[in-house]
Design brief:
heterotrimer, A alpha/beta (274), B mainly alpha (218), C mainly alpha (221), B: mainly alpha, MetI-like fold, C: mainly alpha
Chain lengths: 274, 218, 221
């Protein structure tokens, strides 16, 4: 499709995954995965554990090297470059440059414990983008305000709750002004009552037009926010489609089985007053 | 009783030796720490020959007694024309030996920092080297403080061996005095007491560092 | 070093190395044997516990060499005269006991107290709890540390050369003096220590890997 509903040209493709295969030892965790994400699109990736969804995300971030296939961000392959008509491995420096345009939020937050919340957010701009402190600080404070944690700027991560730490982590990634945000089960390590505050931040981000790839177990969130849902199982994309189509009437039997199990579980854990 | 009075009079000599002991300990500690830090970081760069060389250095210097290493430096090097004074050869000997030990300590410290820290730093666009410097190293320093403290205490005690190459430190002074006065029991007990007096404060500081580090944990 | 000198010296050096190994083994037995009651006393507390604590702190606060001189030279005026080998075994044994007492204590304390409580709730007596539940679980922590101690004990026996005990360092020193070849003989001695220590170091690493495998690894996907 090269034109949208009103006849304008559709947004450009930002992330292109082609024939991605990843092998760990004897096991193919990803098998010839193809995926295409447009600018401004929010894609939710769901599936059972071991389906390869996290590995897919990490390959896009080039935290794992694909066994075969490649990933391109904004038309540029990450991890490989063309040298004299041959594909050669990129240097650490070149990969780092590409990563400045990608933000990643981890399941375990990975905040830097020896820095305050503010310093965590300022680290990227000052050390990588070479902003001065005078330029970086207002930017960082603004982002902390945006995620609702302006009052915690001077606190160290150990003093913050899980939900607060994750929100700081999101602010930290946003400080780099990325064009793509990757979320690797961002709420899976959180106590249930803290999940909502993080999802709200992610919702705002989606509303602001960020291109997002979200690996998640939060089906309601995926249904609300995603433009497209991708279901993975055993290293392959089994089915993808618009949320209400995939969730209400999935076509593939494996998708059906997965959603049935998830809905049952979520129904059982839903508390009356939430 | 008169023996005790004699020992009291000999105390200044012993204390002079204690000063030299402190000098050797400090000098060797700095040398060992520099070697250890450099090699631990170098080992994380993905260059195979360098990693093998470092692994060999560590294994060899940890398998050979430090006394042997001291003798090689003080006596052995004279064969190829290098003649060092006792104090410098003690500092070099304990420093190189300690460097092998501290390489392992720093390596373990670096590895104890969760991989997720490096990944988060990389996703902010940092190269591995920058991430090491700004994110990993500051955290590793805290982890490494207790083992460093224990190393310093062990080093303090090891310097007694420098008496075998006539370095003018505490044990050497003690032995010389015993040769002259034959008051072995009193003099060696006093020397041991002085070592205790030096190592106990270090031990206390190390335990403080241990406690403070585990408090700051997640 | 000519092949002749090498040929003449090797038998002597090998015999001396045997002396080193004997000293190491005996001192290790003393240290391991004495260390356990010390650790248990420490853990039990009370007056005996405090005495054990004092012993450990004092012995660990001084160099092994100082202890060696005290035992060999310092006990003589008081009527206790030991030969150099025995004095060395005693000194390293007592020093090692203080060190291993701490290793044992750390290993025992590393076992989850919940384990002890569960065993007690099953009706086991304190000694049974120690024997059946605590000590077996302390082994993975203690064994590698004891292995490391054995390696450093092997190296420490070289110190006994300073009281002319019959071990490798003394012999190589004599030979270095006889032939005026310090570099060669000390390097040779170093190589022989390496050959003795390396199998032990390898075993310790294998032990550590073996025990690390069984432990839970907390990780994310």
């Amino acid at each position: 499709m090269t034109s949208g509903p009103t006849g304008e040209p559709a947004p450009a493709v930002l992330v292109e995954v082609i024939g991605l295969t990843k092998r760990f030892g004897e096991i193919d965790v990803l098998k010839e995965v193809d995926l295409s994400v447009r600018v401004g699109e929010k894609v939710a990736i769901i599936g059972p554990s071991g389906s390869g969804k996290t590995t897919l995300l990490r390959c896009i971030a080039h935290l794992e090297r694909p066994t075969s296939g490649h990933v391109a961000i904004g038309g540029e392959r990450i991890g490989e470059k063309l040298v004299n008509a041959r594909w050669r491995e990129m240097s650490d420096r070149e990969i780092a440059r590409i990563r400045t345009g990608i933000g990643m939020v981890f399941q375990r937050f990975n905040l830097f414990p020896h820095l305050t919340a503010l310093e965590n957010v300022m680290l990227g701009p000052t050390r990588v983008l070479k902003y001065s402190r005078a330029e970086a600080e207002p930017l960082a404070r603004g982002l902390l305000r945006k995620v609702g944690l302006a009052h915690k700027a001077a606190d160290y991560p150990e003093k913050l709750s899980g939900g607060q730490q994750q929100r700081v982590a999101i602010a930290r990634s946003l400080a780099m002004q990325p064009r793509l945000m990757l979320f690797d089960e961002a709420t899976s390590a959180l106590d249930p009552e803290l999940i909502g505050e993080v999802l709200n931040v992610m919702r705002d981000l989606a509303r602001d037009g960020m291109t997002m790839l979200v690996v998640t177990h939060e089906m309601k969130f995926a249904e609300d926010v995603a433009d497209r849902v991708v279901f993975m199982d055993h290293g392959r994309i089994v089915e993808e489609g618009r949320p209400h189509e995939l969730f209400r009437s999935p076509s593939h039997p494996r998708t059906q089985a997965f959603l049935r199990a998830v809905v049952d579980r979520q129904a059982m854990t839903e508390t009356p007053a939430s | 009783m008169s023996a005790c009075l004699t020992v009291w009079g000999l105390l200044p000599v012993l204390l002079l030796g204690a000063v030299a002991t402190a000098e050797i300990t400090a000098g060797a500690f700095v040398l060992a720490a520099l070697i250890g830090m450099t090699l631990a970081v170098a080992q994380r760069l993905h260059w195979y020959p360098l990693r093998i060389a470092i692994a060999i250095y560590v294994d060899v210097f940890r398998a050979v007694p430090v006394l042997t290493q001291l003798f090689i430096i003080y006596f052995g090097l004279t064969e190829i024309g290098i003649r060092l004074d006792p104090l410098p050869s003690a500092i070099v000997g304990f420093g190189i030996n300690g460097g092998a030990y501290l390489t392992e300590v720093f390596r373990a410290g670096l590895e104890s920092i969760h991989q997720g820290q490096m990944e988060a730093a990389q996703m902010l666009g940092m190269t591995r080297l920058t991430a090491l410097r700004i994110v990993i190293l500051p955290q590793a320093v805290r982890v490494v403080l207790p083992p460093l403290g224990n190393f310093a205490i062990g080093l303090l005690k090891d310097t007694a061996l420098a008496s075998a190459v006539a370095a003018p430190e505490l044990m050497f002074r003690a032995r010389t005095l015993v040769d002259k006065t034959f008051l072995a029991t009193q003099i060696f007990t006093t020397a041991a007491a002085i070592y205790l007096a030096m190592s106990l404060p270090l031990g206390y500081l190390t335990r403080q560092a241990e406690a403070r580090f585990s408090r700051g944990r997640r | 070093m000519t092949p002749d000198i090498f040929g003449e010296s090797m038998p002597e050096l090998l015999a001396a190395a045997l002396g080193t190994l004997r000293m190491t083994a005996l001192a290790f037995l003393v240290a391991a044997g004495l260390g356990l009651p010390l650790a248990i006393l420490r853990l039990a507390g009370g007056a005996a516990g405090r005495l054990a604590f004092l012993y450990v702190e004092i012995v660990r606060g001084m160099p092994a060499l100082a202890l060696l001189f005290l035992i060999y030279f310092g006990l003589a005026p008081l009527g206790i005269v030991l030969n150099s080998f025995t004095a060395a075994v005693a000194a390293f044994g007592l020093n090692g006991a203080a060190y291993l007492a701490e290793v044992y204590r750390a290993g025992i304390q590393a076992v989850d107290p919940g384990q002890r409580e569960a065993a007690q709730m099953l009706g086991l007596r304190r000694s049974q709890v120690m024997r059946e539940v605590t000590l077996p679980q302390a082994v993975p922590v203690v064994l590698p540390a004891m292995g490391n101690y054995l390696v450093s004990l092997l190296k420490d026996t070289s110190i006994a050369s300073l009281i002319a005990a019959p071990e490798l360092m003394l012999r190589s020193r004599d030979l270095a003096g006889t032939y005026y070849l310090p570099m060669e003989f000390y390097l040779l001695a170093g190589a022989m220590y390496l050959i003795m220590a390396w199998p032990m170091m390898h075993m310790v690493r294998r032990l550590e890997r073996h025990f690390a495998r069984g432990r839970l690894r907390g990780g994310g996907t």
